[in-house]
């Protein structure tokens, strides 16, 4: 079920919300059970067969987590039980997501003509697998207090995050599910939640889906060889903006939906195209995935504790695996490796500057230069992320380099130029949702350092209500061409 669908907006959401608060008057546990079961139905809406994969994963990981927590509390050996439990999760993820990719790669390497079975990918498997791996590791470290099965089920299946994140941490969510006050409606939370949800809905169906037309045309395998330089840059910028507004929209809608239920999700998206370095970009883009990779991969590999060379190797390994997490393909692997290389260069640059007493980004010129280099590097990497195969990716890059001809600006129509200009201005200059909503405890995480002018901040009133209603009407009219969020495929 899609957030941007009539069935969700006029059916699932009001029924789930009403049942949640009606049951919450009598029993917090009953309301939590209702929300967990509704989340399972939300997941099963796609393909009910995959709900068995989800539920089996939850049952096995909950049992494994209890065993690990008990052994940690007793001071018993936890290493091998943890490796077994994490290995089982990775095995399931590898079977569904990577078996076809590695089988094809092996067949090509060995020059064998072998039939490769195509395995259907359960939607959201990467997100609920990573969420539960973090739970298992923390259980083995003695950091897990005993959750009830209902709360654990809700923690994993909670529908605002289940399909495309954020990657949740049990220490953030389960204490919220235990609060009795979370099960009573609050006018402020509902007003804030609806506003944020509608802003996200507008971003998705009016902005992201609109610019997707130009990105899809540029990266179509049959069209890429005919791209000129201008059209290639326009198509790449179109995808750069499409994935920005698509993921920003999903993040906003997830946060808004969660606030309706008096639950706060962790911050996951903070104006990443305003970053002045690749390091800063990854502190703003898919924040919870970056946190997971840092805490459960980069640091266990040694982090930056064993010298600069080892740190660079750890960064590269982390980002390559992060790229493969997004998809089973060489394009995703190269995308991850590029960002690993960018991070290595960024850290090396900072180290070189510190040696001569220079602070990067202290001056306006330095920040502008840092932003320009970062944005260009991210754009170039998106070519591999978007391209359906390596051949298309390299064809688009050749076109961007002018090797397929320098087409005049008329290669892009006026509507495309206007749309790309407007969306670029919003992504690069506009305040993000946390800044717009001000001090409304929108998400978990530190308060943003910068604040927009007070006139841009949300406050209950006729002006904002009218604006939200207008965005809702426009969004409904555009929802005749419903499309999935890009991160659903991961």
From TrEMBL:
Alphabetical UniProt keywords: Acyltransferase, Alginate biosynthesis, Cell membrane, Membrane, Transferase, Transmembrane, Transmembrane helix
Membrane disposition: Multi-pass membrane protein
Places the protein is found: Cell membrane
Keyword Transmembrane annotated: yes
Any matching Pfam family: MBOAT
GO biological process: alginic acid biosynthetic process
A GO MF term: acyltransferase activity
GO cellular component: plasma membrane
Ligase found in the keyword field: no
Major location category of this protein: membrane
Transmembrane regions: 6-23, 28-46, 52-70, 82-107, 119-137, 149-169, 189-206, 315-344, 364-385, 461-480
This protein's pathway: Glycan biosynthesis; alginate biosynthesis
Similarity remark: Belongs to the membrane-bound acyltransferase family.
UniProt name for this protein: Probable alginate O-acetylase AlgI
Species in which this protein is naturally found: Limobrevibacterium gyesilva
């Amino acid at each position: 079920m899609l957030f941007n669908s009539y069935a969700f907006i006029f059916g699932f959401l009001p029924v789930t919300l009403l049942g949640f608060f009606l049951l919450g008057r009598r029993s917090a546990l009953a309301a939590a059970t209702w929300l967990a079961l509704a989340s399972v139905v939300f997941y099963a809406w796609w393909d009910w067969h995959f709900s068995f994969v989800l539920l089996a994963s939850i049952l096995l990981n909950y049992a494994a987590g209890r065993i690990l927590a008990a052994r940690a509390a007793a001071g018993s050996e936890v290493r091998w039980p943890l490796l077994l439990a994490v290995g089982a999760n990775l095995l399931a993820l590898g079977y569904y997501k990577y078996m076809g990719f590695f089988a094809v790669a092996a067949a090509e390497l060995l020059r064998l003509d072998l039939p490769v079975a195509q395995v259907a990918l359960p939607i959201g498997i990467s997100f609920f697998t990573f969420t539960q791996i973090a739970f298992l590791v923390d259980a083995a470290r003695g950091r897990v207090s005993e959750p009830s099965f209902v709360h654990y089920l809700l923690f994993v299946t909670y529908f605002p995050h289940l399909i495309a994140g954020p990657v949740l941490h049990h220490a953030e969510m389960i204490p919220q599910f235990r609060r009795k006050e979370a099960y009573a409606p609050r006018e402020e939370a509902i007003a804030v939640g609806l506003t944020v949800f509608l802003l996200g809905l507008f971003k998705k169906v009016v902005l992201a889906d609109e610019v997707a037309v130009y990105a899809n045309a540029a990266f179509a395998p049959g069209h890429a060889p005919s791209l000129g330089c201008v059209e290639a840059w326009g198509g790449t910028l179109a995808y750069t903006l499409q994935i920005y507004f698509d993921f920003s929209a999903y993040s906003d809608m997830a946060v808004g939906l969660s606030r309706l239920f008096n639950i706060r999700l962790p911050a996951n998206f903070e104006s990443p195209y305003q970053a002045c370095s690749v390091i800063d970009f990854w502190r703003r883009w898919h924040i919870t995935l970056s946190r997971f990779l840092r805490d459960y991969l980069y640091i266990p590999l040694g982090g930056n504790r064993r010298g600069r060379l080892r740190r660079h190797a750890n960064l590269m390994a982390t980002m390559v695996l992060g790229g493969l997490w997004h998809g089973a393909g060489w394009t995703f692997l190269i995308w991850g490796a590029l960002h690993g290389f960018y991070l290595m260069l960024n850290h090396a640059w900072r180290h070189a500057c510190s040696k001569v007493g220079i602070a990067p980004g202290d001056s306006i010129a330095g920040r502008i230069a840092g932003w320009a280099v970062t944005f260009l590097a991210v754009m170039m990497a998106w070519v591999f992320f978007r391209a359906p195969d390596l051949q298309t990716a390299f064809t688009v890059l050749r076109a961007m380099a002018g090797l397929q001809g320098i087409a005049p600006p008329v290669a892009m129509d006026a509507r495309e130029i206007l749309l790309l200009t407007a969306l670029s201005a919003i992504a690069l200059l506009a305040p993000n949702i946390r800044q717009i909503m001000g001090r409304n405890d929108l998400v978990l995480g530190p308060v943003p350092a910068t604040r927009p002018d007070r006139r841009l901040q949300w406050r209950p009133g006729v002006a904002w209500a009218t604006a939200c209603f207008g965005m809702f009407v426009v969004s409904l009219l555009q929802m005749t061409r419903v499309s999935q969020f890009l991160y659903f495929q991961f």
